[in-house]
Amino acid sequence: MIPSKRPVQSRQHEPIRVAALMVCTRDRPQEIADCLASCAGLVAPPGARIVICVADNNEVPQEEAIRLVAAEHGLDLRYGYEPKRGYASVRNCALDLALGAGADIAVFIDDDSTADSGLVAEHAAAMERYGADAILGRIEGLSLRAREGHRVKKAGTGNVSMRRWVFDPVDGAGLRFDERLNLLGFEDFEFFADLIRAGGVIYQSTKPVAISRPTLDATPTSAARPFEARRAFATMEGRNEIAVTRMRHGVASALLRLLRRQTPQIGRGIAGLVGAHLVSLKDVAEGRAQRDAARIRLAKARAGFTGLWRPGYDRPMARLGRLVEVDDDTK
What we know:
It contains 10 helices and 9 strands. The chain is an alpha/beta fold. It has 2 domains: 8-212, Spore Coat Polysaccharide Biosynthesis Protein SpsA, Chain A, CATH 3.90.550.10; 227-318. Strands 1, 2, 3, 4, 5, 6, 7, 8 and 9 form a 9-stranded mixed β-sheet that branches. Helix 1 (29-39) links the parallel strand 1 (18-25) and strand 2. Helix 7 runs antiparallel to helix 8, helix 7 packs parallel to helix 9 (284-306) and helix 8 packs antiparallel against helix 9. The chain is globular and about 60 Å long. The protein starts with 17 loop residues before the first strand and ends in a 13-residue tail after the last helix. The model is unreliable at 4-10, 215-223 and 316-331 (pLDDT under 50).
């Protein structure tokens, strides 16, 4: 959804009485159990209570197992099942759960994350401190350039919060994740870009902390991963970033984004190959590492051009190194 501007009164910063912690899950039974266990230690914002909203995107609903874990840890649970597979669909299910719980703020973390005890309270405090509509928190080990109080224009759902007006369709902008992007990704970046278009502001805070497991999802560019898997992920990202822009904003916007973001990577990739050759004369291992990095950069840039006319790749398969075309039903 691309929003129109909303009147200022629809964005009033109301007191926080209910905070929703939203977790979307699929094919990670142990991870979601561990995540829910960590939620037992959450400290609520002053004068507020915390509800845990679990959006289940498994092929077969796991309601019984999820409710059992939540009850074991004394959690105030809201459960929802989303049968349509996809990042956007299940996150929209989580937003609906937060609305139904009467949440004044909603916090997303991943199902393979551990919630620091101060996670929700620090999100609420940062919102008040900066007068923000959304707060981008810190993911331990992954948020390498986090800056306290820095205003940002890009955010994902790994550790982020938002005020109710953002997703409330009655008294706010009613934003939702674009379900055309279910298997492509970038739906979270697009969602927060929509928030900014609606007049919202996003600040970064290092104090709300989530701790992510060292999974392939969490470290897609880690040098420890096999080269082919890293290149597959970069190819998917390069193509999908441009494909998503084309689908939502048109070919002209996609071409402009390609020229601004991907084309410069070609020059950097070529320069990297030349530099890697020189380095390898002294240090073979270092030269190989630089050469791989350059090849990945070139793969991502090349893939961006194909995103102008092709739909992209299915992310779960891409992270395993197998690129699978998905149907483009937007033509």
